[in-house]
Design goal:
By secondary structure, this protein is mainly alpha-helical. The protein has six helices and four strands; from the N terminus they run βαβααααββα.
């Protein structure tokens, strides 16, 4: 191909990125290495650790991140406007991960208002770090997954507040947990 564009290149391992790159004359890697790292198969990861002196960070570093750090500024472009999040959330993400370089000025604020009266902010942090371990009930589930009834009940209470707020305000909302 004359051009190969690899989307989500920040999430792919180097070998996964090399395959499409080998098919193109010019390559564009699109991604964000400051989000989720590549997913490495657990069996492969364990085998690599046992056979070689390989550090986990080396395997989790995408080719995209490696090249981003090594290439001169003239060979890379960083987008600095986001359009998906409420500006309050966008500002938080920009400050924490992008040195304040990502702007939310072009976000349509009207589309991002949640219209709930019990929640006067756009970001809420709920911590369970102050809960004594005895209050948290952990149950072993399938494999290595755990359930935490305390956190589940806390989330349920928050969802019930949202439902009450929606009913009293006459609005309908969808929620992802």
């Amino acid at each position: 191909f004359d051009w190969v564009i690899v989307d989500e290149a920040g999430r792919s391992t180097a070998p996964e990125t090399f395959v499409p790159m080998s098919k193109g004359k010019k390559i564009i890697l699109v991604g964000d290495h400051k989000q989720l790292p590549p997913i490495i198969d657990r069996e492969l990861l364990e085998r690599a650790f046992s056979e070689q002196e390989i550090q986990k960070k080396v395997l989790e570093t995408s080719l995209f991140e490696y090249l981003y750090e090594k290439l001169p500024n003239g060979k890379k472009i960083t987008l600095n406007n986001q359009y998906r999040m409420h500006p309050d959330i966008g500002k938080l993400v920009s400050t924490l991960f992008y040195e304040g370089q990502v702007s939310s000025e072009l976000v349509n604020l009207g589309d991002k208002q949640h219209q709930l009266t019990q929640f006067d902010k756009n970001i809420y942090w709920v911590t369970t770090s102050n809960v004594k371990p005895i209050d948290q009930i952990y149950e072993r589930s399938i494999g290595t997954s755990y359930t935490n009834r305390y956190e589940a009940n806390l989330i349920k209470a928050i969802l019930e507040k949202i439902e009450q707020d929606c009913q009293s305000s006459g609005v309908q909302k969808t929620v992802g947990v």
